[in-house]
Structures are given as structure tokens and as C-alpha cells.
Amino acid sequence: MRGGFEIRQVQKLFWVNQTTCWLSLEGSIDAQPGQFVMIWLPGIGEKPFSIASIDPFCLLVVGVGPFSRALLKLSVGDFIWVKGPLGHGFSVDGQRLLLVGGGYGSAPLIPLAKAAKAQNLQVLVCLGAQNSDSILLPEAFENLGFQVSVTTDDGSRGQKGLVTSIVEQALQESDFDTLFACGPVGMLTALAKICCEHQLDYQFSWEAHMRCGLGLCGSCEVPQTFDPSLPVGWLACYDGPVFCKRW
């Protein structure tokens, strides 16, 4: 067995759509919202995954490559190897929170929303994706009693356009203390500019190609061209994946 990994058994599989599965593992995990784990499958490799639920411990797996597709072939009772939690997660700051998820970037926002609910905070959720099938788990936020606004590129669900458009609208209509986001680099870069214009504190979970998950290989460095507020040499796995900017 590889050092630092523990074995977890698959308890449940819930298919969100044809390529995306909610993978429930045995037990819980002592983690902060926004942290991640490294998953190892012997003979296949290891990859990072955001923690989509802390108790029970769940992952949201999207079949976008050989490793994730191998995970989607697992059955209840199978075992996987888990290392973590790793990295720095979200810090719940303020009373009025704006959560923004792009595509499967909604996954790490679910534990954050649950933490906000436990503290009786006000939350607005904005989700964006290419089409209606790619809007993932809006009901996870709605079931907590939070309003969810949706955009799709093709207009098949919610408002047509980019999620940044409804973020701008929300900021014009209400005041928020902090914006939390996870999604594609282009979305986060655009949100950083919006937050700068509004002098709004933000916490972004950056997606990057991770190999070691420990800050040793440097493969997950996020360049300042994505967000000028990022320090030089900022590593998503070690310094992040969450970067906080406070004005």
C-alpha cells in the first residue's frame, strides 16, 4: 500500500447524468469545505478530487478522462485508496455570501453551503454551465433553503449567457460580504475583475493539474496572469486550492 493512503469502500452510486456520478464512500472525513483528496487506483494512477460532502464522505466524479472513467466503473462494495484531506479550504467570512459555481465546480461549494446553513447565514447561489445537463446538483443548494440562479451557454436552462452576468446583476441588487467560487479559469479571472471593481472580498478554488498533491513537483502553479492578486509561485495543491483576497 502507498504511504499516506487509506482504504475506503464504495457505499452508494448516484448518477447525476450520463457522465457524472455522486460517489459515496464509507464514513466521514475530517475536512474543511474546499479541501481535496488524492484518489489512487492500483495499476491506473492517482488524481485529485474535491470533497463534495464531508459527512457522509462523497465525491462528484465526471467522466472526462481515463482515470475518472475507471472510477465510474466501480460498484458498491469496491475499494479505493484515499489520501487527505489536503490543501487549504474555504473560510466562512461574513453574513451574506455569494456562491458561484461553473460546471462541476459546484461540488466543493456544497459543503460550504452546508456550513453557512449551520451558521444561519444568507446565501445566494449562481450556477453556470454549457447546457442544462451540465448544471450539477442545484437541488443540493435548494434543499438547504437557498435561492439558486442558473445560466447556460445555450439557454436550455435558466438565463442564456455566462454566469458572470447574473453575478453582476446580483451585486447591483444586493450587498454581499464575500464571493466564493470554483470553476474554469476563464470564469475565475472574470470574477476577480468584477470583485476588484466592487471591492468585494473573494475566495476562489483554483483548478490546476496536480501530480503530487503536496507542493513538491510544482506542476500546479497558478500564474498571476489569471489573477494579479496571486503571489508568485502560488501552488494550488499546497497554498490552495482556495485563494483568499480581502480588501
Question: Can you characterise this structure?
Answer:
The chain is α/β, with parallel strands linked by helices and 247 residues long. The chain has two domains: 6-86, Elongation Factor Tu (Ef-tu), domain 3; 96-245, Rossmann fold (3-Layer(aba) Sandwich). Helix content is 19%, strand content 34%. Strands 10-9-8-7-11-12-13 form a seven-stranded mixed beta sheet, sandwiched between helices. Strands 1-2-5-4-3-6 form a six-stranded antiparallel beta barrel. α4 (163-173) runs parallel beside α5. The chain is globular, with a radius of gyration of 17 Å. The mean pLDDT is 93. Residues 1-92 form the FAD-binding FR-type domain. This is Putative dihydroorotate dehydrogenase B (NAD(+)), electron transfer subunit.
Write the layout of secondary structure elements.
Layout: E1 6-17, E2 20-25, E3 36-41, E4 45-53, E5 58-62, H1 66-71, E6 79-86, E7 96-102, H2 109-118, E8 122-129, H3 138-142, E9 147-152, E10 159-160, H4 163-173, E11 178-182, H5 185-198, E12 201-205, E13 242-245
Parallel strand pairs: 7-8, 7-11, 8-9, 9-10, 11-12
Antiparallel strand pairs: 1-2, 1-6, 2-5, 3-4, 3-6, 4-5, 12-13
Helix pairs in contact: 4-5
Keywords:
single chain, 247 residues, alpha/beta, Elongation Factor Tu (Ef-tu), domain 3, Rossmann fold, seven-stranded mixed beta sheet, six-stranded antiparallel β-barrel, 2 iron, 2 sulfur cluster binding, electron transport, iron-sulfur
